[in-house]
């Protein structure tokens, strides 16, 4: 038997030995991670669904629902659909009934309320605009209402199944009564126009495009006549070519020259040429001869359309041509 002091000394030494060697016997954290299977981790995945709303292109045609809504607005505001001339003018309370001629006089003589004189206008205005354009005299230069340009656009865009990426040529775009709607609808640089009249071009470029905020669309508007389309380039292909009340005023021979030059620039199958009012340049040849001449150019007559105006007691006749094959 060991004496008590010796026993206590032995137990203390054993405890100290265990304390010193125990850490070396225990697995290290790294050994634990490598030797054991990784712990099962539960991941909670939150799926966020993002809905991207792509703005639909503006509708080309006014719908029956649009008309019904407008009629309801007129009724709710007690506004008649039609008013006589006298009744219309009795409504002008507090409105200064100046004609365009009087407005122009005020601008030129009195400089309006806050117009710079001519000498200063050139220094202060990026695009000096003649007074005749400011009072929109050019809106009365044509036989139909200015707003009728929307009707023409609606018909042609629908009849040709037009998309914003398509290439369009107007022969005789004038002051852009119709062209503004195409320029707004199409992508930039997709609208071409050949126009011979200097005043119309001035109104289009110096008033209408800036006033409508469409300069960024970069339409290619070329002054020219004799059906010279060379400045538009040799490789351009058109999805729509149209002439609104233009071929009426051009000699038949020149019309055929234009068609000959444009036939190869019309996209096969899908591309369309539309001519308004009549096609006397063709009918004067006689049906068979006209068909034969069109065929020689690679064109064919598709048919006749009558388009009714939404706003006016008016309709317009259009004649359609296409290029059936390469």
Automatic annotation (TrEMBL):
Keywords, ordered alphabetically: Signal
Keyword Signal appears in the UniProt entry: yes
SUPFAM superfamilies attached to this UniProt entry: S-adenosyl-L-methionine-dependent methyltransferases
Signal keyword on record: yes
CDD domains tied to this protein: AdoMet_MTases
InterPro entries: SAM-dependent_MTases_sf
Region described as Disordered: spans on this chain: 37-61
Taxonomic superkingdom: Eukaryota
Signal peptide: 1-30
PANTHER family: S-ADENOSYL-L-METHIONINE-DEPENDENT METHYLTRANSFERASES SUPERFAMILY PROTEIN
Name of the featured protein: Methyltransferase type 12 domain-containing protein
Organism, as annotated: Oryza brachyantha
High-level lineage: Eukaryota, Viridiplantae, Streptophyta, Embryophyta, Tracheophyta
């Amino acid at each position: 038997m060991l004496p008590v002091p010796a026993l206590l000394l032995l137990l203390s030494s054993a405890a100290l030995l265990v304390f010193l060697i125990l850490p070396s016997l225990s697995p290290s954290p790294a050994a634990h991670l490598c030797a054991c299977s990784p712990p099962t981790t539960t991941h909670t995945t939150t799926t966020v669904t993002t809905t991207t709303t792509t703005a639909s292109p503006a509708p080309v045609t006014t719908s029956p629902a649009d008309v019904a809504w407008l009629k309801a607005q007129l009724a709710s505001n007690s506004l008649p659909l039609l008013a006589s001339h006298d009744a219309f003018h009795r409504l002008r309370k507090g409105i200064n009934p100046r004609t365009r001629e009087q407005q122009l006089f005020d601008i030129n003589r009195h400089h309006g309320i806050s117009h710079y004189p001519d000498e200063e206008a050139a220094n202060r205005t990026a695009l000096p605009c003649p007074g005749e354009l400011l009072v929109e005299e050019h809106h009365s230069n044509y036989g139909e209402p200015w707003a009728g340009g929307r009707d023409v656009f609606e018909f042609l865009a629908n009849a040709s199944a037009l998309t914003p990426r398509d290439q369009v040529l107007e022969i005789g775009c004038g002051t852009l009564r119709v062209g503004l709607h195409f320029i707004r609808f199409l992508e930039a640089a997709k609208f071409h126009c050949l126009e011979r009249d200097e005043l119309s071009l001035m109104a289009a470029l110096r008033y209408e495009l800036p006033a409508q905020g469409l300069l960024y669309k970069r339409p290619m508007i070329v002054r020219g006549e004799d059906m010279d389309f060379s400045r538009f380039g040799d490789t351009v292909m058109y999805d729509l070519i149209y002439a609104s009340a233009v071929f009426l005023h051009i000699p038949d021979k020149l019309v055929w020259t234009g068609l000959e030059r444009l036939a190869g620039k019309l996209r096969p199958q899908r591309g369309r040429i539309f001519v308004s009012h009549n096609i006397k340049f063709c009918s004067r040849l006689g049906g068979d001869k006209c068909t034969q001449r069109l065929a020689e150019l690679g064109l064919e007559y598709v048919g006749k359309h009558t388009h009714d105006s939404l706003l006016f007691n008016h309709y317009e006749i259009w004649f359609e041509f296409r290029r059936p094959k390469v």
